[in-house]
Write a structure and sequence with these properties.
The complex is a heterodimer.
Chain A (H helix, E strand, L loop, with lengths): L1 H16 L6 H16 L3 H22 L8 H41 L2 H8 L3 H39 L4 H9 L5 H26 L5 H31 L1
Helix pairs in contact in A: 1-6, 2-6, 3-4, 3-6, 4-6, 4-7, 4-8, 4-9, 6-7, 6-8, 8-9
Chain B lengths: L1 E10 L2 E11 L4 E5 L6 H9 L6 E6 L2 E2 L5 H8 L2 E4 L11 H12 L4 H14 L15 H13 L5 E5 L7 H18 L2 E6 L2 H7 L2 E6 L2 E6 L1 H4 L5 H7 L3 H10 L1
Parallel strand pairs in B: 3-8, 3-9, 6-7, 7-8
Antiparallel strand pairs in B: 1-2, 1-4, 4-5, 9-10
Helix pairs in contact in B: 3-4, 3-5, 4-5, 6-7
The chains are: A mainly alpha, B alpha/beta.
Bound molecules: adenosine-5'-triphosphate and magnesium ion.
């Protein structure tokens, strides 16, 4: 019952944020600003995590298939596909849920408890659309790019592991990452990332928008929104993988 | 003119406004006074529709506000300037952007015209050379004044102030009170001010509505309030020991 209540309210809020903007130029500028705040500022952490994950996947795969009948280049291939299919999207999305999601819900939550949202409403501004729509646009547009970046850097991380830690020979690794490459995987990842981006913008926005109380509640809402985002991301992952890959 | 007709506002089973009816005239400073928790803020929020009244009617110059659809309410809200109890400045924008915000949103003025208007409004509240400061860098009183500047930027027909001078020193309070009164008369605005500050009451109280536990207990002017013959009003007005002595001397 409570779930239905929240889902209805969430649905309404998302609907409200998609209504016609008062002034398109302002929304455009805000979307650019959000791309900077939410997307560009996440480049560093995404790059860092991807390089390590790429390296670790390569090492673990090599460690697990020490078998003379399996050629070494398959390790490169496995690392590449793991990165492309799962880590560059779901793993990165979970990290972004923590970084971007919590910042969205605390920003909007603070605006709620300090009556800034009321002030917007009084002026006749549609606060939901003014605050949430630019974030949705920024994330939906930028997160797939982050995923692609993460793939590139992750594969590069695996190569670094080969060079620095002597896991397999770099030549075998390169052969592996070029072997039986399926471009559809990139498309699949981008589609997943668009869904994740939507979740990471709207779920925290919902939690922030309906905060009641003070700064303590804002903190709680932000924690809660990260938990819900993570659960949703993983469930959507299962559904989309079933729909797109099987 | 804003009219409130038989408004009841309840949160769950707690009735905060209990059959409140009154009218606030144009060009006058209408004060709503009462103790902390008596329902002043809730009354103001019901008037602008931030909370939905349980029953009753809110009229803006002959238009029934609380039964309108979203678009209709929006049109009226564009004519409302509101000052919140906590100022509610947008803390990601600097002073200039804050005051310019409604102009950006709803007018087609050029940047220069907007800037001129912003500086005029800031000047009106005696704030100069603070355009580039962020709200976090302002004192409480300056925030209140920026909030006033933002509220008057669009030349509102209705100005609603929730404790515009709470937390300010008596001198700044009087300056802000007089400023609001001047603006009200100059532009013939319908102004409602929530306050529990007796100085304001005696300075600018052209019409005073006294709320006690969610109902209107007394209405009158600043000249009448000192001998209102109402027990609750007297307790409020002459709350301090000094006040009680003055009261006894008057009697
Ligand atoms: N959202 C809400 N939910 C439940 N009760 C509320 C809500 N908002 C206000 N109240 C209650 O309504 C009563 C009146 O509150 P209100 O904020 O109007 O007081 P006030 O007269 O403005 O006081 P102050 O002078 O301290 O600002 C209080 O008892 C408060 O607990
Ligand atoms: Mg109040």
């Amino acid at each position: 019952m409570r779930f239905l209540y929240h889902f209805g309210k969430y649905y309404q809020l998302v609907g409200k944020s998609f209504s016609k903007p008062e002034k398109v130029s302002i929304y455009y500028r805000r979307a650019l600003k959000e791309i900077e705040l939410l997307g560009i500022n996440s480049l560093g952490i995404v790059a860092l995590i991807s390089v390590f994950i790429g390296a670790v996947i390569t090492m673990q795969t090599a460690y697990n298939i020490e078998n003379p009948f399996i050629p070494d280049y398959l390790i490169g291939l496995t690392a590449r596909d793991t990165m492309l299919l799962e880590f560059s999207t779901t793993m990165i999305a979970l990290i972004l849920a923590g970084k971007v999601g919590s910042s969205i819900s605390s920003e909007i939550g603070t605006m709620r408890v300090t009556e800034q949202i009321d002030a917007l409403e009084i002026m006749g501004v549609n606060s939901a659309s003014y605050l949430i729509l630019p974030k949705i646009i920024a994330n939906v547009f930028f997160f797939p790019l982050l995923a692609i970046l993460s793939m590139v850097i992750g594969v590069f991380g695996g190569w670094l592991a080969c060079i620095l830690l002597d896991v397999i020979s770099p030549e075998d690794y390169i052969t592996g990452i070029r072997y039986a490459f399926i471009p559809y995987y990139i498309y699949y990842s981008c589609v997943k990332m668009v869904f994740y981006a939507f979740i990471i913008s709207t779920v925290p926005a919902y939690h922030g928008y309906y905060v009641e109380g003070g700064s303590l509640e804002v903190g709680k809402a932000s924690t809660r929104s990260v938990v819900y985002c993570s659960i949703l991301i993983l469930s959507v992952d299962v559904v989309l993988t079933q729909l797109l890959l099987s | 003119m804003i009219e409130v007709k038989d408004v009841v506002m309840a949160f769950g089973d707690k009735t905060v406004l209990n059959h409140v009816s009154t009218a606030f005239d144009r060009g006058k400073t209408n004060l709503v006074i009462g103790r902390s928790g008596s329902g002043k803020t809730v009354l103001l929020k019901s008037i602008v529709g931030l909370v939905q009244v349980t029953s009753g009617e809110i009229w803006y110059d002959g238009a029934l506000f609380n039964k309108m659809d979203f678009a209709g309410q929006k049109e009226i809200r564009k004519q409302i300037g509101m000052i919140f109890q906590g100022s509610a400045l947008f803390d990601s924008l600097n002073v200039q952007q804050n005051v310019m915000f409604p102009l950006d949103m709803f007018t087609t003025m050029s940047t220069n015209e907007k800037l001129e208007r912003v500086n005029f409004c800031l000047c009106r509240v005696s704030l100069e050379n603070v355009n580039q400061l962020m709200p976090a860098e302002l004192s409480g009183g300056m925030k209140k004044r920026v909030a006033i500047a933002r509220a008057i930027a669009m030349n509102p027909k209705y100005l609603l102030c929730d404790e515009p001078n709470s937390g300010l020193d008596p001198q700044t309070s009087i300056i802000i009170d007089n400023l609001i009164k001047e603006i009200t008369e100059e532009y013939d605005i319908t102004t409602i001010i929530n306050t529990h500050d007796m100085n304001s009451v005696l300075e600018i109280g052209e019409k005073i509505t006294f709320i006690y536990e969610g109902r209107i207990e007394w209405e009158g002017t600043k000249d009448e309030i000192l001998n209102s013959q109402n027990q609750y009003v007297d307790n409020f007005v002459f709350a301090s020991g000094m006040g009680k002595k003055i009261k006894n001397m008057m009697v």
